[in-house]
Specification:
The chain is built from 5 helices and 4 strands. By secondary structure, the chain is α/β, with parallel strands linked by helices.
């Protein structure tokens, strides 16, 4: 459902602020995809997660704060940093390692998430 909405936004190039805020609010929660069952090793508490977190509007810091906090919690739970993709529209966050929040980047990161068979 979210991906079809993003495809619509990307196709029409909608630069509308309200639309971007709605997308940012929905995506700040993150798109979590499990790529495998929890393993019995020590890091099994986190399972095997690949995550895309997006803050697509720099008008309010709340979106970046939420994405950054979620990324930190996931990392503390044992999710490898390379499996957490954090996107932001804020230049300050980009300097801190976030990827640029664009429809193209978001859709690419989601499409590249590994999915388990079945």
């Amino acid at each position: 459902m979210i991906s079809s909405a993003l495809h619509s936004i990307a196709r029409c190039g909608a630069p509308y602020r309200a639309l971007r805020r709605i997308a940012a609010a929905a995506l700040a929660l993150g798109v979590l995809v499990s790529s495998g069952a929890a393993r019995p090793e020590a890091d099994s508490r986190a399972g095997k997660w690949h995550v895309v977190l997006a803050a697509g509007d720099d008008a309010e810091r709340v979106f970046d704060n939420a994405a950054r906090a979620m990324a930190q919690r996931l990392a503390e739970a044992g999710v490898p940093a390379g499996d957490i993709h954090r996107l932001s529209a804020s230049a300050g966050e980009l300097a801190g390692g976030a990827e640029p929040a664009s429809a193209d980047t978001l859709l690419r990161d989601i499409a590249e998430l590994p999915a388990r068979p079945g």
